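Predict the structure of PadR family transcriptional regulator.
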Amino acid sequence: MARRELSSIALIVLGLLDQGPLHPYEILRIMRKHRDDLRLPVSVGSIYHAVERLERDGYAVPLATAREGARPERTTYEITDDGRAEHRRRTRDLLRTVQPEYPAFDVGLGQADSLEADEVVALLRERLDTVREEHAAYDAALGSIVARGVPRRHLLDAFYELEQRATQIAWIERTVAEIESGELDWTTPHFPTHGIDIHSNTPDDATSSPEKDLV
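Done. Here is the predicted structure for PadR family transcriptional regulator.
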């Protein structure tokens, strides 16, 4: 049977357990503190689901169960040797392999030519305000963390996210300016793009067929 790859949240949970035993609520608190919720959906339910999966696969085991006051019992988990090895393997795979991603913004950009230029500009400016705010908050938070002496190697994902936002800001600013100046033409009739393959210099109709498209 083929190996089921760890989900992103399961990988992060496993990485936290690699630093020491934790119960799911502690994991949730740390993930929110690290702002992992900006990267993927994080909730009590998703943490428990990830922990159950890790336990089922032999990557984590219950260590102790305790109760604090009137709170429900909480089970602390620790990583296994297999879990540590799987965490390293999956991390290596994610670092070296380019995998398909499906960002929603890309889909919106692909359909933007159905709208009027003024509306596209207004919508992009609205997004720009949001991304700028996120970038500023991220930058301030990172600066504070670095000032406390946290080594940069522990923050590579955060610095990457910061750079991604900066790149998006620059692209939106440039595109808005091009639309407003007329450099990016928005007046020509709608042009059918179904015969264009951006990954090839050859039109689709010369290289593909309905049968090929189904493969």
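The chain has two domains: 8-96, 104-181.
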